[in-house]
Amino acid sequence: MSKENFNEKLTALLKTHPDFLDDAGELIPAAVRDHAWQLNHDLIKLLLTDDQIKTAFFDEIDGHWVFNHNTFINYITDKNFLANSYTQFRNKIGLNIGGKFLRERGEVSLVWPYKDCVLEGGQTKEEEKRKEIFFNETLAQDEINRMFDPKVLTNWKRHTAEDEQDVTDIQRDENGIILENLIIKGNNLIALHTLKQQFRGQVKLIYIDPPYNTGTDSFGYNDSFNHSSWLTFMRNRLEVAREFLKDDGVILIHIDDQEMHYLKLVADDIFGRDNFIATVPRKTRSGRSNVPYNLSQDFDWILMYSNKAVKKNNIFQRTISRKYHTTPDFPDDEWRLSDITVQATIHERPNCNFTLVNPKNGQEYPVNPDRCWGFPGNSFHDYYKRGKIVFPGDYDFLNIRQPALRVFKSEEIERKGIDYDKAFVSSDFLNQAMDELLKSMVNRKGTDEIVEIFGRKAFAYPKNELLMQRIIEYTTKEGDIALDFHLGSGTTAAVAHKMGRQYIGIEQMDYAETLPVERVNKVIAGEQGGISKSVKWQGGGDFIYCELMPYNQAYMDKIQSTQSSEALVALWRDIAEDAFLNWYVNPEVPEEAINDFIAIGDVEKQKHLLAELLDKNQLYVNLSEMEDADFEVSAEDKMLNKAFYGDS
Fold first, then answer.
1. Which of 35, 325, 379, 502 gets the most CB atoms within 10 Å of its CB?
2. CA distance 529 to 539
3. Do residues 15 and 27 lie in contact, with contact meaning Cβ atoms separated by under 8 Å?
4. For the chain, what is the mean pLDDT?
5. Sign of the torsion formed by the C-alpha atoms of 603, 608, 614 and 620
6. What is the H or E stretch that residue 522 is in?
7. For the chain, how far is it from start to end, CA to CA, in angstroms?
8. Is 192 exposed, middle or buried, given 0-12, 13-18 or 19+ CB atoms closer than 10 A?
9. What does the H/E/C string look like for 501-514?
10. Looking only at Cα atoms, what is the longest distance across the chain?
11. Do 183 and 493 form a contact (C-beta atoms < 8 A)?
12. What are the residues whose beta carbons fall under 8 Å from the beta carbon of 249, sequence distance 6 or more?
């Protein structure tokens, strides 16, 4: 039988199964392939009904027919099997949900290699680049659970305006919620899982400025799945971050063009497409960037999501101070001015397209050609009689050039259900904020603030304080909790502290103590940079600093700081005896291996090899192992961890 006839025979047989057909009665190869991967009994029984098909896709072993699903899947995936065969997305970015392709589902989702995995503990230094290990969420559940177990916290210090003090207690509110400002050093994914029981559903704002995966930032992975690694990296963190948000909480993710559109699909999947708020542009420069195509890339972006589709009208609003006037002609009612035009064309509201004439002096005011008056021409005399229209020259203290609408305070009070101390926020609010800065310093402003604080350029591309002030004031109120788990230079913590918000900052790099901690120390001391003058900041307050207690992390630090082959060999012997090693590593240190190690001659390569020995899933000490004498947790740390974790 020819292949064409075999195809027809196989297709006809598969079409007898309703699960393999679309609404038009056509075969869906993706559905067939799914059943084959699952070794679905109905599919196997169906294929066994035809001898020729059975011979093609089954192997006979001792009188038993064994389904060769790889051969079957390869056959139905072949482009010649069906003219309308769906594309396979092997190790590619593609559109897929639950293994089902576009024709079968109405939704859109992003699929990539290792999407169903959690990245192992991950690199701990920016300069350490290595192949990443992915834990499958089903096959490696034990490893994932161990990695996500709460960790012991150590090196507790309370930072105040007076000095650095020992932590003796953890402040909580009447509901048991921790009231402390926190800066925590450690892997941010592991730290988030460590904190989630304490702060689940308590955070009003999450702002993160993650690595952009541009090849020039801190996401320095050098494996063959760089793009996929980044997507998995982000997905792992965003999934747990959502658990922190209040029902009306919001998350803002700063990103550039490189990954923004992929990140949007990932975030849609995690937070829900209905909870997407906006993509807000931020102008990064006023000059020209040196880029291909002669198209200057002058913006980056912030993706905004609410946690749940509730209170959407109240998420982004800003408190304003309205100016009311008291005049002799209206002694019993204060009033203010408002725009007398509305956003509509003359074609939409032709009766509102007329020339306004001041009855006192005959001065004419044509309507703005892009707008209309807020009332029809035949209502003018009624409006004027009620004092609703103010013309230029009516009051000496007013400096207006066009007619304005008078709004009485009594009228606003009567309109119940509206908060007239609130004003809507334009999606261009970041650029409006940037207009308050010198435009030549749009992206430099954050760097200038860092230089002013530390006397040097201590961090690449820090966000400026005005940017964070706008975000915080438009999304939170005093006492709300803000979370930044890519803390970097500490802008979020510094601004939140000045604005009376509680904050949680997480940073895993060594500069956690020298940058964000020192920056907030200076804030507490009353530094006057950034937004300090605008918010009348005078200093005060405190925060707690602590670290995830290292285990293998301590060996990672020793590896990085060691400078000679001899010292690395000695460290290797300590690691083999005391550290948690990868399952495939022999704990013994044979002399021939030592000789081969020394013969490498390159200290950096030797460091990399030793780092590979360590199980990155045991970077930190699990809380459940706090009483184990081998980990040497101090009595003070035990007391503080019990106070911090409480009943959880």
1. 502
2. 12
3. yes
4. 81
5. positive
6. helix 518-524
7. 68
8. buried
9. CEEEEEECCHHHHH
10. 110
11. yes
12. 203, 204, 205, 206, 306, 307
Residue 279 is inside which H or E element, if any?
strand 276-283
Q: In the numeric block, which tokens belong to residue 548? A: 């995830």
Q: How far is CA 48 from CA 15, 34, 64, in A?
A: 15, 18, 12
CB-based burial label for 221 (10 Å; 0-12, 13-18, 19+): buried
Residue type, 250: V
Torsion of CA 595, 597, 599, 600, to 10 degrees: 170
Distance CA 116, CA 102 (A): 20
Least confident of 164-168, 207-211, 419-423, 639-643: 419-423
Q: What is the pLDDT of residue 576?
A: 80
Dihedral, 625, 631, 634, 635 alpha carbons, nearest 10 = 40
Amino acid at 517: V
Q: How far apart are CA 410 and CA 388, in angstroms?
A: 13
Helices (H), 243-379: 260-271
360, two tokens: 């006192």
- Written in H, E and C, the secondary structure of 563-620 is CCHHHHHHHHHHHHHHCCECCCCCCCCCHHHHHHHHHHCCHHHHHHHHHHHECHHHCE
In angstroms, the CA 563 to CA 559 distance is 9
Give the model confidence (pLDDT) of 383-407 as tens digits: 999 999 999 999 999 989 999 999 9
